[in-house]
Amino acid sequence: MLLPRINHRLLLRHSPSPPSFVPFPSSSPSRFPSFPKTALPASKLVSGVMTAAMAVRPPKLLFRQLFEKESSTYTYLLADVAHPDKPALLIDPVDRTVDRDLSVVKDLGLKLIYAMNTHVHADHITGTGLIKDRVPGVKSIISKASNSKADLLIEAGNKICFGSLFLEVRATPGHTLGCVTYVTGDGPGQPHPRMAFTGDALLIRGCGRTDFQGGSSGELYQSVHSQIFTLPKDTLVYPAHDYKGFTVSTVGEEMLYNPRLTKDEETFKSIMENLNLPYPKMIDVAVPANMVCGLQDRVVKA
Ligand SMILES: [Fe+2]
């Protein structure tokens, strides 16, 4: 039986207050029950999908951490390889490494459905626009609070589903006003320990700067403490960057050893105000491009 196409914008707009859901879209044959043609309340839609899927086969996470060396950016590939279609998503892809990322997707037989960003990056151009060009049907995702363009604009409490797995959206502003952290789901069949893709809100033994793009040190402090440090201590922390060779940390480890975020709020603000960092060299190019999904050339020509 064929699944009808899901109108993601409609679904998000008409979803009840959080949590709301972005289901795995598919028009290919599936063992899942078909969706009605009218949009259901999102929670019903997703719970129906997950129950049916897990009755057939429990989800299985495929995870890859990829690195772009010029901007020291991590791109993350996640997929549910137990699902017949192997739906996959990329978090924080970089334009320079789109070919590499898509070759991995192809080699592993995955169906890429989402290319998403944790925030509007200032140090590189996102790969989401290029990916959309090369893989028909892929939807770009960024937070509504970023004020940028994407196919799906998400908010705190939304859930982004790929197969029977999902990511929760947590608002973690402070590095930029639109930063979010994506956290793997909590519940049967979801990865354990959980995984938090923190963008630049929380880096391993550090954090993103707060002096551009609507940044605020006070807000960042509150975001990390209320939205990340409240996760289980064994939650794996996967940041958007690392400059020292670290690849992963845990919430518990950062709560103990992060040299900035273990301090009280006033000390943290003082540290952030006195970093004396140089002007970000890519910011004037990267931010305007990333506000339009990395498709700046098309916007200029249009
Ligand atoms: Fe950033």
Automatic annotation (TrEMBL):
Location of the protein in the cell: Mitochondrion
Metallo-beta-lactamase domain ranges (all copies): 72-241
Group of enzyme by EC: oxidoreductase
Record Pfam families: Lactamase_B (PF00753)
Primary residence: mitochondrion
SUPFAM superfamilies (UniProt xref): Metallo-hydrolase/oxidoreductase (SSF56281)
Key words of the record: Acetylation, Dioxygenase, Iron, Metal-binding, Mitochondrion, Oxidoreductase, Transit peptide
GO biological process: glutathione metabolic process; hydrogen sulfide metabolic process
Gene3D superfamilies reported for this sequence: Ribonuclease Z/Hydroxyacylglutathione hydrolase-like
EC id: 1.13.11.18
Catalytic activity reported: S-sulfanylglutathione + O2 + H2O = sulfite + glutathione + 2 H(+)
Cofactor(s) required, per the database record: Fe(2+)
CC annotations in GO: mitochondrion
GO molecular function: metal ion binding; sulfur dioxygenase activity
Family: Belongs to the metallo-beta-lactamase superfamily. Glyoxalase II family.
Name the UniProt record assigns to this protein: persulfide dioxygenase
Phylogenetic classification of the source organism: Eukaryota, Viridiplantae, Streptophyta, Embryophyta, Tracheophyta
Gene: LOC105032196
